[in-house]
Structures are given as C-alpha cells and as structure tokens.
C-alpha cells in the first residue's frame, strides 16, 4: 500500500544539530520511510539501493537527500558508498543497515539459490556495512549502527527457517558488535513485525505465498519502524537503545 508523503524542503533538512545518516535498502518500505522521516527531522541523508528509478523518485520527493546506487552484496560497493559520504560530508554519524530480502520457502522445496540470496543480502550485506563504517566511527570517536532485523530473529515458523536464520545471525552480529565497541559507538537492533512492504512479493513458493497472505492480515506502516529508528538515534550520547521490537498490536 502506498502512503503519500509531503515533499521535504531543503530548508527543513538543514539544521545545526542534524546528523549525517546513511541508509541501505532505501528504495521502498522501511528504508524509504526512514529516509523521509529523518530528512524531515533535519538530518542529512545519504541513501543507497539497487533500483535507480526508485532512488530518483525519492530524490524528487525529498530534495537534498543524496541518493546512490548500492549493492550491499558487493563489499567494494559498500565501502565506496560509506567513504563517498564521508568525503562529501566530512563524517558519518549513523549507518542504518536496512537492506534485506525474504523469499520464504520450506526447506524441502530446495530453493537453494534463494537461500544463498538471503545469506548474501541479509548477513554479508550487514557485515559489509559494519566493515565500511566502523573504521570511520573509531577515527571520529563516535557513531551509531542501526540494524533492521526482524521478528524472525526471535521466532521461527514453517517456511521461515533460512530467513529466520539470517535474522538470528543479524541479531547476533549486532549484539557482538555492541559488546566489542567502545561506548562512544552506539548499537541498536530494530526488529519489525508485519509491516506494509514489498518483501513478501519475492516469495515464489505457492504454499509460502498463501501462508503469508494470512500472516499479513494485520500490518503497520513502515513509518512506525522509521519512528523507532528516529527515537534510537535521537537519544543523548550516554543513552544506548540496544533493542526494539515493533509489531502490530494484533500480531501474536
């Protein structure tokens, strides 16, 4: 479902206390909603995704948002994305690792190519983002990682074994990062429940498609997750919001 968004003016995006925020997977869903919300709040956004037409539309909706084509499965591409933002803006304050895919299927369907794609995007993509941004955060003496995981990091259902596995991995990697980092680097995991998005459109297995139609009977808009991300990054330096689960009130 499409939610109209009021265009963001350049003036609204330039405030003295705004942060330089990078968002991956920004062409739709949670990534797009996060970019738009944070831009309205006065942050400088640098966003990336594979679909350049969607990025162009985002740039028209929110003038001043810096859009760049990005494939998170390509380590050099992610490094260039982060390094380029630092070169252009002098620093990077927040990296929202949001890019993800969800082609659910039963294990006995043997959709191995789809399993590999989930591992590449959901796990390797996250690691590539950490590897690219962490040296900058350490050099700056601060920064904030936000990982968009999933309720699938906390529960497994039939057809979600591989997807949940990747999101458990995302949770574990992010928690390990939190423990290893200096306290000046904050780390947050956000686990959405059922959100209006295009993720389910990638499901090719008929049984999983049918189950998902029932599962997605109650959804919340992606801006609900964007609001949670905004809350986490807006806290004072001594406050580290480590984990948030946001789902529809009717989701059980």
Automatic annotation (TrEMBL):
Alphabetical UniProt keywords: Oxidoreductase
Signal peptide coordinates: none
SUPFAM superfamilies to which the protein is assigned, alphabetical: NAD(P)-binding Rossmann-fold domains (SSF51735)
Keyword Oxidoreductase applies: yes
Record carries keyword Oxidoreductase: yes
InterPro entries for the chain: NAD(P)-bd_dom_sf, Sc_DH/Rdtase_CS, SDR_fam
Similarity remark: Belongs to the short-chain dehydrogenases/reductases (SDR) family.
PANTHER family for this protein: DEHYDROGENASE/REDUCTASE SDR FAMILY MEMBER 11, DEHYDROGENASE_REDUCTASE SDR FAMILY MEMBER 11
Protein name: SDR family oxidoreductase
